[in-house]
Amino acid sequence: MKAKLRLSASLLLVLFLLAVNPFWVDAASVITLERALEMARSQGEAMLQLDLGSEQASLSLDMMRREFGLGAVGVSDSKTLKKNMQAMESLIDERVTAIRLLEENIAGWEEQKASLDSDEAQEDSPSSGELDILIREAEREKTDYQLELDEIRFAYSKVVQRYYPMKAQEDLADANPNMQSIQSAVDATSDAQLIQPRVISYNVERLYLSLQELGAQQNHLKDTVSNLQKMVRREKIMLDLGMTTALSLATTEEAVYQTEEGVKNLQNTGEELSASFRRLLGLPLDFSFTLYPAEMTADLIDVAGITPPDLTQSILYKRAQANVQEKMENLEDTSKSDLRKYRLAELEVEEEELNMETTLKDLQTNYTNSLNALLLAQKTLENTRIGLENARETLDQAELKYRVGSIAGAELEQIELAYDKAVLDYQNASDQHYLAYQAYRLAREGISANESKEM
To answer: At 296, phi and psi to the nearest 5?
Structure first.
């Protein structure tokens, strides 16, 4: 995939856009695509709302935990305590193993020392003094390990004494609907901070290209209106000469009206898109701007060479996995003495496992839809390319006919407009293919381009 800027005659293009696009007139700033992406990520309304939402959710969670007598997440919550317990358990196992090995070595050296005076002693066996040194060193290491083991076990007992009351308090808090809602908000905003910057960048490109396409379409319709007005004047002359009908004139006048209405509709749409673009970039609603011409292209893909993505590595699926793991840990900590409570914990695990499966299916569906949309966009791009070639050939023939006097200038102008329309269609197809490719890339990472879509 590649993105390139049309640099040739760029200043003239900018001035041209200023002159012919009413919603870009009197622009105070020229915005490039790179600058637009930077502004959206640093000061855009969507990112600011996301950051505010994340901070609010975190503060609300801290306040709610305090109400239940709980410490801060990541410091004195049950999950942190359990991780500390597991780390201590590993250290205890290491020390116990090390002490056992040292005891086995000491016992072996003691046997060697006792056999030195027997007939079984080997000539190359260590001397009694050497064995004494090995035994003393091993005993010293064993003592050090034992001291560490005692300290770790003591610390472990303290953490255990804190863990179970903390877990019981958190279980009570988690049963509170407000706590569940706030925790869900914290998780959602945490995931969104990883996902939304990519979606916002996609929407910046989408709006940027849409505004460019809109301006080009509006210019083309204006040229069409001009041509139709010429046709109206021609029809009036021909009507006076009795060479046409009033119906033909009325039809041409209606075409002028409809095309002028199309120009107005495009202008209204442009104003709406410009407003969305300003919000996305964090600009004032009255900020005037023009866009530096940009052309985005994407490579065509070969269906046969596509490898399915591993969507289990996506952010959303990992969150679903974490939810399952949390419920499984709750199940492990639930006593079987209370059968109803234990069964409820089992059902919560099953529910999260179902949610995880649903999440994966949704991600797979999004990927399949994005791939199909990309393939359709590729086909459309190829069709418009063929249409452009045909329009070019028709125009070449028309220019030849005009030079020999076979057609009038107004007819040639209509064919030129048809060629310009084919150019616009091809450019639009190219832009849509680029956006489809970007959406496809996001889908491969488990991200939907439609999330938080701005218009």
So the answer is: -105, 130
Of 72, 74, 70, 136, nearest to 109 (Cα)? 136
Which residues lie across from 297 on neighbouring strands?
2
3-state secondary structure of 283: coil
How far, in Å, CA of 310 to CA of 364, rounded?
10
The DSSP output letter for 195 is H
| Phi, psi at 66, each rounded to 5° | -65, -40
Alpha helices in 310-408 (DSSP H): 315-332, 339-403
Q: What is the chain's alpha carbon radius of gyration, rounded to the nearest angstrom?
A: 37
Beta strand 295-297 with 2-4: parallel, antiparallel or unpaired? antiparallel
| Closest alpha carbon to 220 in 26, 413, 4 | 413
Residue 15 has pLDDT above 60, yes or no: no
The structure tokens listed for 283 are 């600009």
In Å, how far from its chain's centre is CA 250?
53
190: exposed, middle or buried (Cβ count in 10 Å: 0-12, 13-18, 19+): middle
pLDDT tens profile 25-58: 444 589 999 999 999 999 998 889 999 999 999 9
Which residues, in sequence order, are bridge partners of residue 30?
Answer: 290
Q: What count of other Cβ atoms lies within 10 Å of the Cβ of residue 68? A: 13
Q: Express each pLDDT in 258-268 by its tens digit.
A: 999 999 999 99
Using DSSP's 3-state secondary structure scheme, residue 455 falls into coil
Residues 179/304, Cβ–Cβ less than 8 Å: no
Tokens of 245: 């009908």
Nearest of 414, 389, 411, 392 to residue 401 by alpha carbon? 411
Nearest Cα residue to 452 out of 32, 53, 39: 53
- Tokens representing 190 are 């945490």
The runs of H, that is alpha helices, within 175-245 are 177-240
- In this predicted structure, what is the pLDDT of residue 191? 93
Amino acid (1-letter code) at residue 18: L
